[in-house]
Write a structure and sequence with these properties.
This protein has 358 residues and is an all-alpha fold. It has one domain (3-351). It contains 14 helices and two strands. The termini are far apart.
Length: 358
Amino acid sequence: MSLNQVLPSIAVALIVTIAFMFAFRPVAKRVGLVDKPGGRKLHEGDVPIIGGLAMFVGILSGLSILGLDLNFLLSIFVASLLLVAIGVIDDKYPLPAAARMTTQVAVVLIMIYGADLYLADMGNPFGFGPITTGPFMLMFTVLVTLTMINAYNMVDGIDGLAGSLTMVAMVAVAAVAGANNAFGAIALVIVASVFGFLLFNFPVKWNRPVRSFMGDAGSTLLGFAIVWVTLGVAQGEARVISPVHALWFAALPIFDCLTCFVRRALQGKSPFTPGRDHFHHTLRRGGLGVRQKLGILTGMQLIYAMVGLTGHFAGVPDYVMFAAWSALGLSQRVIICRIADSRSLRRWTQANPNKVVE
């Protein structure tokens, strides 16, 4: 398919997402689907949690006119619907981790057996030859997908962050695959929908009257979307990029998730216990405002995605890219702490106060 064929789907995804952001707003207030300030939540007033629902409708509307395989589209629809439904329930009535995890596993199984998307090839990360998952395909696919779903759920701690990181990843996928590739086209449709949501979530003054959150329904949907789009371009005979290079497209959420999991495990806590140990919390303790944290973290992910793209187009071996990615992941928290403790950055922050409330 050409870009001209994809443009109507992009337009539909954008327009439908914006329309449903307005349509769902009064409904959310009526049924109490709002995020109230207090405790770990520092925003002002009750904010509707409707982004996940609106993006779900927007993305599926755009994909429905893209000419995709019906079985693939139906499988992704059912899987996404389950994920969004359990997310909305969790946003309204907090659910135990077991209920969320069971649903997420079911979603992965639908993706594998319905859409025929799975992790069979891990590339050549150690330089000894390609690694295939073989009989462990199911286990690895479930593990990787659950990690990504929860990584994007956990990184969604400040306005605009999860959406901005998703857009970086999707643009990188589209840059590799191109609009003539089905998954490249899907990535562009998702970018359009996320952009429509960010009009209501990005931390700027003019959207405060309609400020909305994506909630667990949105963050888990975006994490899942990144998995199936990335699997589409990095697996199978028609793959256009190595899975090792593609790791760079979502490096920051993965590093944030794994760092928190390890720190909490070492402290004897459940990895899913809420805490203030994410990268954006570290930057906040350094005195940075919401827009400054958003700019730093999104900028870092943009750099990482460009590294992945450069490595891909330059033909850098998988083992070199994986070694660099691993070293970066191990040092990421130190890098974040150094940024938070930077005196020059602190002086700049004091000179440019950020009054947007988180």
